[in-house]
Amino acid sequence: MSKQCTVNDFINTFSTDDICLEWLKNKFYPNGIFCKKCNKITKHYKAKDRPSYCCEFCGNHFHPTADTIFHRSTTPLKNWFYAIYLMSSTRCGISAKQLERELGVTYKTAWRMFQQIRAMLKQEPINSDGVFEADETYIGGKHRGKRGRGSENKTAVFGITKREGKLVAKKITDVKSSTLIPIIKGNAVPNAIIYTDEFPTYDKLNKEGYIHEIIHHADKVYVIDDCHINNIEGFWSLLKRGINGVYHSVSSKHLDKYINEYVFRYNNRENAEPMFYLMMNKVEKNSSL
């Protein structure tokens, strides 16, 4: 498959369930499958009419999809791969209604597939020094009354990004310093430079060992040399346009999964590897499934 990863590339590469199953087998066991009955690595052959492989000596079955998001799913494996491809090939997101139409599955199945895929796109902490921007925003429908901080019926989201680096964002219960400061400490090491707006919650950053620089948005000042939070605000704009334009509304219960999707694409936007493969590499064995 080319670096561009066109739809023709995808169709030609993952045309059948067996090919998709082989890809998973090679991903999880590149050095061969360990047979528990034989107590050694043995050759395994694809079972006929079953999504499994059989040991050449004892016939023990091995299922590459076990304990993954594909576990016990009646949806064809190539449809799962295509759902991941669709999510990887868009900047602003894709609705379950579109997946329903393209695959011919029920809306409930399409929605669940996308939720499972989003759940595997977990964020990793940045845990670095350097220059950071931190900010909070509010996600929700349009309501009468106060906008921005303190608005009702909306969900608060906090984000921190390293300039020319990764971004972390998550749903939060409130915008108190006791909530935001620990998230900052979990991603930026002491002596890092943290740019924020004038929100008082960030006033404790200096005491925590950070170099805290403030841009005063209330005075309609948005950039002074290197002092700005334009990168994190750019991500907020992308996230909100996607949610409002594609999904129209997202419940607070599932918001973190949608944020994972947007953060993953944002953090890998400069990666030369096709986004599809970057997402596929996040498929892993999960003993809780």
| CATH fold category name of the domain at 131-252 | Nucleotidyltransferase, domain 5
- Indicate the low-confidence ranges by residue numbers: none
Question: N-to-C terminal Cα separation, in Å?
Answer: 30 Å
CATH class of the domain at 131-252: Alpha Beta
CATH architectural label of the domain at 131-252: 2-Layer Sandwich
Which bin fits the share of residues in helices? 25-40%
Decide which structural class fits the backbone.
alpha+beta
Radius of gyration equals: 22 Å
Strand content: 15-25%
Average pLDDT: 91
Number of strands: 10
Tell me the name of the CATH homologous superfamily of the domain at 131-252.
Ribonuclease H-like superfamily/Ribonuclease H
- Tell me the strand order in the biggest sheet: 8-7-6-9-10
Protein topology:
Elements: H1 7-13, H2 17-28, E1 33-35, E2 40-42, E3 44-46, E4 53-55, E5 61-62, H3 77-88, H4 96-103, H5 107-120, E6 131-139, E7 155-162, E8 167-171, H6 177-185, E9 193-196, E10 211-214, H7 230-247, H8 255-267, H9 275-280
Parallel strand pairs: 6-9, 9-10
Antiparallel strand pairs: 1-2, 3-4, 4-5, 6-7, 7-8
Helix pairs in contact: 4-5, 7-8
